[in-house]
TrEMBL record:
Belongs to the D-isomer specific 2-hydroxyacid dehydrogenase family. Pfam families: 2-Hacid_dh, 2-Hacid_dh_C. The keyword NAD applies. Residues 5-312 form the D-isomer specific 2-hydroxyacid dehydrogenase catalytic domain. One of its GO terms (molecular function) is NAD binding. It comes from Vreelandella songnenensis. Transmembrane segments: none annotated. This is D-3-phosphoglycerate dehydrogenase. Residues 111-283 form the D-isomer specific 2-hydroxyacid dehydrogenase NAD-binding domain.
Length: 315
């Protein structure tokens, strides 16, 4: 089968153990993301199968109409919000997903918290430039860690917070709040209370129509001047432009982000701010996680090729 894998930024897929599953097939791997429709059509037109790396390339109805050879899409991870499933159903294209893992994202979240609170990027740069101890960091013990969304990743970050002897405060949907109470954690009185109380506030919500823009400029303005907002989930959880303006105004005083409104994001205005630590969507980009994601994606694809029953989002 003619298989196309796009958006392999690190050129790492061919080096995974899971890649052996595709032996005997015609596999083409691209290491960049295209946004122009005609260029995407030219790249994907030969493909009978697409293997998608998370949400890096949207698969729209307009694109699908120009891919007559496409039979199947095998998605890494468990989400497919970037794929027009209705259009796939109309064209008889099977769409399959796999599993995700919360650990890499939770670990990166904690790395960003420590980096921002202790000014690690600045101090590394200072040291390499010949400087010594230019900043005064902020410790975590005894401070309030706000968790907005207590799912798989949020609950792990809460556990890390407890290990650092932080006071964990949770907010989210009713089920979220109930699980937090059962785990012995405090629940905020409201979303506003969470933003007012947290010294570190980490977002762990799925992006959907209910959560898009759920963090407004008014919520950010409630945060303490010395507080840190962390977003390793999805940028559109925060109203467009609100975080940039809030950081310029000093509430919150700092942010650490791994996600952007448009990705790749080499020119995002957040990158110009000295009080924002940023990484290029690395939350899930980790060796064990990639073996899991691609192991599932390739196993599902081989099952489809062999005519075996598969779980499909378009069935």
């Amino acid at each position: 089968m003619n298989i196309v894998i796009s958006d392999d930024y690190q050129d790492c897929v061919r080096h995974l153990a899971a890649f052996d599953l595709l032996k005997g097939h015609d596999v083409t791997i691209y290491n960049d993301t295209l946004t122009d429709l005609d260029a995407l059509v030219a790249r994907f037109q030969p493909a009978e199968a697409l293997v998608l790396i998370r949400e890096r390339t949207p698969i729209t109805a307009e694109l699908l109409e120009r891919l007559p050879n496409l039979k199947v899409i095998s998605q890494t991870g468990g989400g497919a919000a970037h794929v027009d499933l209705d259009a796939c159903r109309r064209r008889g294209i099977t769409v399959m997903t796999g599993r995700g893992s919360p650990y890499a994202a939770a670990e990166l979240t904690w790395g960003l918290i420590l980096s921002a609170m202790r000014h690690l990027p600045q101090e590394v740069a200072n040291l390499k430039a010949g400087g010594w101890q230019r900043t005064l960091g902020t410790g975590l013990k005894g401070r309030t860690l706000g968790i907005f969304g207590y799912g798989k990743i949020g609950s792990l970050v809460a556990r890390y917070g407890k290990a650092f002897e932080m006071d964990v405060l949770v907010w989210g949907r009713e089920g979220t709040r109930q699980r937090a109470l059962e785990d012995g954690l405090r629940v905020a009185q409201s979303q506003e209370d969470l933003f007012q109380s947290a010294d570190v506030l980490s977002l762990h919500l799925r992006l959907n129509s209910d959560t898009r823009g759920i963090v407004t400029a008014e919520h950010l303005a409630l945060m303490k001047p010395e507080a840190l907002l962390v977003n390793t989930s999805r940028a559109p959880l925060v109203a467009s432009g609100a975080l940039f303006n809030a950081l310029k105004a000093g509430r919150p005083g700092r942010a650490a982000v791994d996600v952007f409104e448009e990705e790749p994001a080499p020119h995002d205005p957040l990158l110009t701010l000295p009080n924002c630590v940023a990484t290029p969507h690395l939350g899930y980009v980790e060796q064990d996680g990639y073996e899991l994601y691609f192991g599932d994606a390739f196993t599902n694809l081989i099952a489809f090729i062999n005519g075996e029953p598969v779980a499909s989002l378009t069935a």
